[in-house]
Amino acid sequence: MSHITPAVIAVHAAVREQAPLVQCITNYVSMDLAANVLNAAGASPAMVHDPREAGEFAALAGAVVANIGTLSPRWVDGMLDSVEVARDANKPWVLDPVAVGATSYRRESVDRLLELDPTVIRGNASEVLTIATRTAGGKGVDSDASLDDVREHADALAKRTGSIVAVTGPEDYVTDGEREPIALRGGDPRMPLITALGCSLSALVGACVAAHDDAFEATTAALAMLSAAGEIAGASAEGPGSLRWRLLDELARLDAGGLAQHVGR
Protein backbone atom coordinates (compact mmCIF):
# COMPACT_ATOMS: atom_id res chain seq x y z
CA MET A 1 0.00 0.00 0.00
CA SER A 2 2.89 2.41 0.54
CA HIS A 3 3.01 3.42 -3.13
CA ILE A 4 -0.57 4.66 -2.98
CA THR A 5 -0.27 6.38 0.40
CA PRO A 6 0.06 9.91 -1.09
CA ALA A 7 -3.11 9.38 -3.13
CA VAL A 8 -5.02 8.12 -0.09
CA ILE A 9 -3.94 11.17 1.90
CA ALA A 10 -4.92 13.47 -0.99
CA VAL A 11 -8.39 11.93 -1.20
CA HIS A 12 -8.88 12.25 2.56
CA ALA A 13 -7.92 15.93 2.36
CA ALA A 14 -10.21 16.50 -0.63
CA VAL A 15 -13.23 15.14 1.24
CA ARG A 16 -12.47 17.46 4.16
CA GLU A 17 -12.03 20.46 1.89
CA GLN A 18 -14.99 19.88 -0.42
CA ALA A 19 -17.56 18.36 1.97
CA PRO A 20 -19.28 16.60 -0.96
CA LEU A 21 -23.02 16.07 -0.86
CA VAL A 22 -23.75 12.33 -1.08
CA GLN A 23 -27.22 11.07 -1.91
CA CYS A 24 -27.67 7.75 -0.12
CA ILE A 25 -30.54 5.59 -1.26
CA THR A 26 -29.87 3.07 1.43
CA ASN A 27 -31.71 0.71 3.72
CA TYR A 28 -33.56 1.49 6.93
CA VAL A 29 -30.95 -0.33 9.03
CA SER A 30 -28.02 1.71 7.76
CA MET A 31 -29.37 5.25 7.48
CA ASP A 32 -28.26 6.48 10.91
CA LEU A 33 -24.76 5.01 10.85
CA ALA A 34 -24.15 5.88 7.19
CA ALA A 35 -25.10 9.51 7.82
CA ASN A 36 -22.88 9.67 10.89
CA VAL A 37 -19.93 8.10 9.07
CA LEU A 38 -20.25 10.68 6.30
CA ASN A 39 -20.49 13.52 8.80
CA ALA A 40 -17.44 12.25 10.70
CA ALA A 41 -15.45 12.01 7.47
CA GLY A 42 -16.33 15.59 6.55
CA ALA A 43 -18.94 14.89 3.88
CA SER A 44 -22.62 15.85 3.76
CA PRO A 45 -25.23 13.05 3.77
CA ALA A 46 -28.71 13.15 2.26
CA MET A 47 -31.09 10.20 2.53
CA VAL A 48 -33.38 10.91 -0.44
CA HIS A 49 -35.02 7.87 -2.03
CA ASP A 50 -38.60 8.54 -3.12
CA PRO A 51 -38.96 8.65 -6.92
CA ARG A 52 -40.98 11.86 -6.65
CA GLU A 53 -37.74 13.67 -5.78
CA ALA A 54 -34.80 11.28 -6.00
CA GLY A 55 -33.87 12.01 -9.60
CA GLU A 56 -34.20 15.74 -9.12
CA PHE A 57 -32.03 15.60 -6.01
CA ALA A 58 -29.35 13.59 -7.81
CA ALA A 59 -28.70 16.62 -9.98
CA LEU A 60 -27.57 18.46 -6.83
CA ALA A 61 -25.46 15.69 -5.32
CA GLY A 62 -21.78 15.03 -5.88
CA ALA A 63 -22.37 11.28 -5.90
CA VAL A 64 -25.20 8.78 -5.55
CA VAL A 65 -25.09 5.54 -3.53
CA ALA A 66 -27.63 2.80 -4.34
CA ASN A 67 -27.91 0.19 -1.59
CA ILE A 68 -30.42 -2.66 -2.03
CA GLY A 69 -30.57 -3.74 1.63
CA THR A 70 -34.32 -3.21 2.15
CA LEU A 71 -35.79 -3.22 -1.33
CA SER A 72 -39.24 -2.13 -2.38
CA PRO A 73 -40.52 -1.23 -5.87
CA ARG A 74 -40.60 2.50 -5.13
CA TRP A 75 -37.09 2.46 -3.72
CA VAL A 76 -35.85 0.67 -6.82
CA ASP A 77 -37.56 3.29 -8.95
CA GLY A 78 -35.86 6.01 -6.91
CA MET A 79 -32.50 4.33 -7.39
CA LEU A 80 -32.96 3.99 -11.13
CA ASP A 81 -34.05 7.61 -11.49
CA SER A 82 -31.13 8.89 -9.42
CA VAL A 83 -28.35 6.84 -10.98
CA GLU A 84 -29.61 7.61 -14.47
CA VAL A 85 -29.35 11.32 -13.69
CA ALA A 86 -25.89 10.80 -12.19
CA ARG A 87 -24.66 8.79 -15.16
CA ASP A 88 -25.99 11.30 -17.69
CA ALA A 89 -24.29 14.12 -15.78
CA ASN A 90 -21.00 12.17 -15.54
CA LYS A 91 -21.30 12.05 -11.77
CA PRO A 92 -20.05 8.98 -9.91
CA TRP A 93 -22.37 6.47 -8.33
CA VAL A 94 -21.80 3.46 -6.10
CA LEU A 95 -23.70 0.15 -6.13
CA ASP A 96 -23.94 -1.82 -2.88
CA PRO A 97 -25.58 -5.16 -3.82
CA VAL A 98 -26.58 -6.25 -0.30
CA ALA A 99 -27.48 -9.97 -0.17
CA VAL A 100 -27.89 -10.01 -3.95
CA GLY A 101 -27.72 -13.79 -4.01
CA ALA A 102 -30.63 -14.25 -1.58
CA THR A 103 -33.63 -13.66 -3.86
CA SER A 104 -34.53 -13.34 -7.52
CA TYR A 105 -35.91 -9.82 -6.88
CA ARG A 106 -32.53 -8.67 -5.64
CA ARG A 107 -30.71 -10.20 -8.59
CA GLU A 108 -33.16 -8.65 -11.07
CA SER A 109 -32.84 -5.23 -9.40
CA VAL A 110 -29.05 -5.38 -9.49
CA ASP A 111 -29.14 -6.40 -13.15
CA ARG A 112 -31.16 -3.27 -13.94
CA LEU A 113 -28.75 -1.10 -11.97
CA LEU A 114 -25.70 -2.63 -13.62
CA GLU A 115 -27.04 -1.47 -16.98
CA LEU A 116 -26.50 2.11 -15.74
CA ASP A 117 -22.72 1.76 -15.43
CA PRO A 118 -21.84 2.01 -11.73
CA THR A 119 -18.59 3.80 -10.99
CA VAL A 120 -17.93 1.43 -8.08
CA ILE A 121 -19.38 -1.90 -7.01
CA ARG A 122 -18.71 -2.44 -3.29
CA GLY A 123 -19.70 -5.71 -1.65
CA ASN A 124 -18.57 -8.68 0.35
CA ALA A 125 -17.04 -11.73 -1.32
CA SER A 126 -20.33 -13.58 -1.75
CA GLU A 127 -22.09 -10.54 -3.23
CA VAL A 128 -19.34 -9.88 -5.75
CA LEU A 129 -19.13 -13.58 -6.61
CA THR A 130 -22.89 -13.70 -7.23
CA ILE A 131 -22.76 -10.77 -9.63
CA ALA A 132 -19.64 -11.99 -11.39
CA THR A 133 -20.82 -15.57 -11.90
CA ARG A 134 -24.59 -14.94 -11.99
CA THR A 135 -25.19 -17.64 -9.39
CA ALA A 136 -27.02 -17.39 -6.07
CA GLY A 137 -24.89 -17.33 -2.94
CA GLY A 138 -24.25 -15.81 0.44
CA LYS A 139 -25.75 -16.33 3.86
CA GLY A 140 -28.33 -13.55 3.99
CA VAL A 141 -26.37 -10.32 4.27
CA ASP A 142 -23.25 -12.20 5.36
CA SER A 143 -20.55 -13.70 3.17
CA ASP A 144 -19.92 -17.42 2.94
CA ALA A 145 -17.11 -16.97 0.39
CA SER A 146 -13.51 -15.90 0.92
CA LEU A 147 -11.35 -13.40 -0.91
CA ASP A 148 -9.42 -16.29 -2.44
CA ASP A 149 -12.69 -17.47 -4.02
CA VAL A 150 -13.41 -14.15 -5.67
CA ARG A 151 -10.19 -12.36 -6.70
CA GLU A 152 -10.15 -13.49 -10.33
CA HIS A 153 -13.91 -13.03 -10.63
CA ALA A 154 -13.62 -9.50 -9.24
CA ASP A 155 -10.92 -8.65 -11.79
CA ALA A 156 -13.07 -10.04 -14.61
CA LEU A 157 -16.17 -8.19 -13.36
CA ALA A 158 -14.27 -4.91 -13.25
CA LYS A 159 -12.96 -5.44 -16.76
CA ARG A 160 -16.40 -6.39 -18.09
CA THR A 161 -18.33 -3.53 -16.49
CA GLY A 162 -15.72 -0.78 -16.44
CA SER A 163 -16.46 -0.37 -12.73
CA ILE A 164 -14.09 -0.33 -9.81
CA VAL A 165 -14.83 -3.49 -7.80
CA ALA A 166 -14.15 -3.39 -4.07
CA VAL A 167 -14.43 -6.66 -2.15
CA THR A 168 -14.47 -6.01 1.59
CA GLY A 169 -14.00 -8.34 4.54
CA PRO A 170 -11.11 -9.37 6.80
CA GLU A 171 -8.92 -8.32 3.87
CA ASP A 172 -10.11 -5.73 1.36
CA TYR A 173 -9.39 -5.92 -2.36
CA VAL A 174 -9.77 -3.14 -4.95
CA THR A 175 -9.49 -3.75 -8.68
CA ASP A 176 -10.27 -2.02 -11.95
CA GLY A 177 -9.27 -5.05 -14.02
CA GLU A 178 -6.26 -3.21 -15.44
CA ARG A 179 -4.00 -1.76 -12.76
CA GLU A 180 -2.30 -3.78 -10.07
CA PRO A 181 -5.01 -4.55 -7.50
CA ILE A 182 -4.76 -3.16 -3.99
CA ALA A 183 -5.03 -5.40 -0.92
CA LEU A 184 -5.66 -3.72 2.42
CA ARG A 185 -5.59 -5.25 5.88
CA GLY A 186 -6.47 -3.59 9.15
CA GLY A 187 -9.51 -2.52 11.08
CA ASP A 188 -10.72 -4.47 14.09
CA PRO A 189 -12.08 -8.05 14.09
CA ARG A 190 -15.22 -6.85 15.87
CA MET A 191 -16.22 -4.47 13.08
CA PRO A 192 -18.56 -7.07 11.45
CA LEU A 193 -20.57 -7.03 14.70
CA ILE A 194 -21.57 -3.41 14.00
CA THR A 195 -24.72 -3.64 11.92
CA ALA A 196 -24.61 -1.68 8.64
CA LEU A 197 -20.94 -0.74 8.85
CA GLY A 198 -20.41 -2.19 5.36
CA CYS A 199 -23.31 -0.13 4.04
CA SER A 200 -21.75 2.92 5.67
CA LEU A 201 -18.48 2.13 3.94
CA SER A 202 -20.29 2.29 0.59
CA ALA A 203 -21.53 5.75 1.55
CA LEU A 204 -17.97 6.76 2.39
CA VAL A 205 -16.84 5.45 -1.01
CA GLY A 206 -19.46 7.76 -2.50
CA ALA A 207 -17.95 10.74 -0.69
CA CYS A 208 -14.46 9.88 -1.85
CA VAL A 209 -15.35 9.37 -5.52
CA ALA A 210 -17.26 12.66 -5.42
CA ALA A 211 -14.16 14.47 -4.18
CA HIS A 212 -11.48 12.81 -6.34
CA ASP A 213 -11.41 12.10 -10.07
CA ASP A 214 -9.59 8.75 -9.92
CA ALA A 215 -12.23 6.30 -8.68
CA PHE A 216 -9.65 3.56 -8.06
CA GLU A 217 -7.65 5.78 -5.73
CA ALA A 218 -10.80 7.22 -4.15
CA THR A 219 -12.23 3.79 -3.39
CA THR A 220 -8.95 2.63 -1.89
CA ALA A 221 -8.87 5.75 0.26
CA ALA A 222 -12.37 5.16 1.62
CA LEU A 223 -11.48 1.62 2.65
CA ALA A 224 -8.23 2.82 4.21
CA MET A 225 -9.98 5.59 6.15
CA LEU A 226 -12.53 3.30 7.76
CA SER A 227 -9.94 0.59 8.38
CA ALA A 228 -7.60 3.04 10.08
CA ALA A 229 -10.35 4.49 12.24
CA GLY A 230 -11.52 1.01 13.20
CA GLU A 231 -8.06 -0.16 14.15
CA ILE A 232 -7.37 2.90 16.28
CA ALA A 233 -10.81 2.69 17.92
CA GLY A 234 -10.39 -1.00 18.60
CA ALA A 235 -7.38 -0.42 20.82
CA SER A 236 -9.62 1.01 23.55
CA ALA A 237 -13.05 -0.46 22.72
CA GLU A 238 -14.51 -2.98 25.15
CA GLY A 239 -16.95 -4.46 22.65
CA PRO A 240 -18.93 -3.67 19.48
CA GLY A 241 -21.02 -0.99 21.19
CA SER A 242 -18.09 1.12 22.30
CA LEU A 243 -16.27 0.29 19.06
CA ARG A 244 -19.13 1.89 17.12
CA TRP A 245 -18.94 5.29 18.79
CA ARG A 246 -15.18 5.22 19.14
CA LEU A 247 -14.86 4.50 15.41
CA LEU A 248 -16.91 7.60 14.61
CA ASP A 249 -14.71 9.65 16.93
CA GLU A 250 -11.52 8.33 15.35
CA LEU A 251 -12.82 8.86 11.83
CA ALA A 252 -13.60 12.47 12.73
CA ARG A 253 -10.14 13.10 14.17
CA LEU A 254 -8.20 11.08 11.60
CA ASP A 255 -5.38 13.14 10.09
CA ALA A 256 -2.77 12.65 7.39
CA GLY A 257 -0.23 11.32 9.86
CA GLY A 258 -2.50 8.64 11.26
CA LEU A 259 -3.64 7.65 7.80
CA ALA A 260 -0.07 7.46 6.49
CA GLN A 261 0.98 5.31 9.42
CA HIS A 262 -1.88 2.90 8.72
CA VAL A 263 -1.63 2.54 4.95
CA GLY A 264 2.15 2.74 4.77
CA ARG A 265 2.86 -0.50 6.61
Please write out the topology.
Elements: H1 5-18, E1 21-25, H2 31-41, E2 44-46, H3 54-58, E3 63-67, H4 73-88, E4 93-96, H5 104-114, E5 120-123, H6 125-133, H7 147-161, E6 164-167, E7 171-175, E8 182-185, H8 197-211, H9 215-234, H10 240-253, H11 256-263
Parallel strand pairs: 1-2, 1-3, 3-4, 4-5, 5-6
Antiparallel strand pairs: 6-7, 7-8
Describe this structure in words.
The chain is α/β, with parallel strands linked by helices. It has one domain (2-263): Ribokinase (UDP-N-acetylmuramoyl-L-alanine:D-glutamate ligase, 3-Layer(aba) Sandwich). Helices cover 52% and strands 13% of the residues. The chain has 11 helices and 8 strands. It has helices spanning 5-18, 31-41, 54-58, 73-88, 104-114, 125-133, 147-161, 197-211, 215-234, 240-253, 256-263; strands at 21-25, 44-46, 63-67, 93-96, 120-123, 164-167, 171-175, 182-185. The chain has an 8-stranded mixed sheet, sandwiched between helices. Helix 1 (5-18) packs across helix 8, helix 1 (5-18) packs across helix 9 and helix 2 (31-41) crosses helix 8. The chain is globular. It starts with a helix and ends with a helix. Residues 138-143 have low confidence and may be disordered.
Task: Give the strand order, joined by hyphens, for the main sheet.
Answer: 2-1-3-4-5-6-7-8
The number of distinct helices, counting runs of at least 4 residues, comes to 11
CATH topology: UDP-N-acetylmuramoyl-L-alanine:D-glutamate ligase
What is the radius of gyration? Answer: 17 Å
EC number: 2.7.1.50
Keywords: ATP-binding, Kinase, Magnesium, Metal-binding, Nucleotide-binding, Thiamine biosynthesis, Transferase
GO molecular function: ATP binding; hydroxyethylthiazole kinase activity; magnesium ion binding
Family: Belongs to the Thz kinase family.
